[in-house]
């Protein structure tokens, strides 16, 4: 492709609203342009990289036995109402009405559509297992779109769905897709980890997220420093054994703590450590109120709370609601003498506290010398806190460390969550009706492109891996008006294309500095500069990744180009 014939609008300045490297460089190098908040156009270079990511995805999905189809982005509300997600998905679901007042959603995902399709077409176990996938634009009305393609309102996703007659078949498909995903992200050159995850609004269990390691990631990965254990911080269980201090229990006492609401304020005022305080928070779990207790230096993990109760909704009670239920404001809450209508649940660490501190459920008062085994009634103890760095690894090997990650893929064992709700059933080998068992597997295709850009760059611009680069070779004649330079550039351009290489030739009437700066920004793996020695058939070859420079004759380049590209 001749550069004068395509659209590559590079920018010299970093856009003011671009916070992370991938967003900055994809804008500056002319790969994308923003249309509105969280909505982007893929320009020619961006589209070419996107197609290469999609090609890798298709190859690995096909190898895993999945078959491609395409479903509508515009989805009937009735389908979402069948699964009940119309009411629970939240404001991220983009809803609209047609001219006849029928309700629709712009699909953020396709569980409902694929389930309705398969239930109408497959009635026997003999037609299963079956795995179908698509690559399509999705829509989510994100409250705060940010980081360019990493969190948008419109994005490109590969979503796959598998259907099975039994659990063993689902387990087999899950493992195949897990391997396929690992292959996809490895072929994209990414530094990633597969981590244990929560299924969230998708439902189901036994899920893994594929996380690209990056300081700009919005997710925290808890991993072992001595094994391959890795989990989203929300899902990492705490296996710490808490030893109770061998200290005599003192008499419970209520004292005045005017204006002391936070753990920090209370601990300083009473001259105790935060770990000897009990943090009490009132949650609404589905339709009931639950008082949750953790140690003062720990934080409540609401995902663990949600999973303990198998709840669909978990949220902190509003301050007014808290005062109405417990008779005091947040900061004075505690588990002693709580109304029987409020269930109390505590983290294991709380049970080991001796002579601790908690709120008295009375404004500006706290109890001291609190001993849970003596003073708490009908409290259930379980793992409720976030894991911390330095905690024992849940697999028993090493200790936990933290890293930031960008989620690029997620695999779920959905089970019968959707097939039961939407009556997608088959007749088994005994002629009995049973719901299909489902799996779900998603990859953020446009997010993967951004994740690659986040990991493959330097101070001068992007530095694409060869198999994802928009072009493999960038031919730059320094002066197009010089016949020797333009002629040799054209000769090399034609020769490389004939050999099957993807070539971009900068035939613009621009200064050399502009051409070289743009070339570094774009990040094509091999740059061939045709300059003053063109009349002698000599050119300069520069490798974008390493900066390595070679001066070669035109007769040598053809034989060495494949080696430079690692082909």
Automatic annotation (TrEMBL):
It comes from the Bacteria. It is found in: Cytoplasm. It catalyses: tRNA(Pro) + L-proline + ATP = L-prolyl-tRNA(Pro) + AMP + diphosphate. One of its GO terms (biological process) is prolyl-tRNA aminoacylation. Its main location: cytoplasm. GO terms for molecular function: aminoacyl-tRNA deacylase activity; ATP binding; catalytic activity, acting on a protein; proline-tRNA ligase activity; transferase activity. Residues 38-465 form the Aminoacyl-transfer RNA synthetases class-II family profile domain. GO terms for cellular component: cytosol. Its EC number is 6.1.1.15. CDD domains: ProRS-INS, ProRS_anticodon_short, ProRS_core_prok. PROSITE patterns: AA_TRNA_LIGASE_II. Keywords: Aminoacyl-tRNA synthetase, ATP-binding, Cytoplasm, Ligase, Nucleotide-binding, Protein biosynthesis. It is an enzyme of class 6 (ligase). Belongs to the class-II aminoacyl-tRNA synthetase family. ProS type 1 subfamily. NCBIfam families: PRK09194.1 (NF006625), proS_fam_II (TIGR00409). Consists of three domains: the N-terminal catalytic domain, the editing domain and the C-terminal anticodon-binding domain. Catalyzes the attachment of proline to tRNA(Pro) in a two-step reaction: proline is first activated by ATP to form Pro-AMP and then transferred to the acceptor end of tRNA(Pro). As ProRS can inadvertently accommodate and process non-cognate amino acids such as alanine and cysteine, to avoid such errors it has two additional distinct editing activities against alanine. One activity is designated as 'pretransfer' editing and involves the tRNA(Pro)-independent hydrolysis of activated Ala-AMP. Homodimer. HAMAP family: Pro_tRNA_synth_type1. This is Proline--tRNA ligase. The gene is proS.
